[in-house]
Amino acid sequence: MLDTMKYLETKSEKYPLAFTLNVMETIQEKYGSIEAWSELIQKQGEPDIKALKFFITEAINEGIEIENEKTGEKRKGVTSKKAGRILTEIGLKQATKAVTSVITDSIQTDKASKNE
User: Fold this and answer.
1) CA atoms within 13 A on the CB side of 34
2) Which of 7, 40, 46, 116 is disulfide-compatible with 51, CB 3.0–4.6 A?
């Protein structure tokens, strides 16, 4: 499913975002379904900040683990508080755009591989 990695960039660091089955599983455990979570972050007006922070935390940590496996690095994951600071720095609009992009690209990649 994962052929794509997106990044959130702050002034001091670049954070990888990965949308994998592991991330999907944690979303389902916390929110009951991907659809229920999706409705929270796509609400009219403003997204549910807790749901957005949860995803950012999980997706960054998954991305870091994937990169660590590939490179042998031992970069540490982020906490929910750190994810909130990242969101504050990059802004909700940019974060929502990155979330949508990584999910869309991951799902399109998954659909394409089923058709082969």
Assistant:
1) 9
2) 40
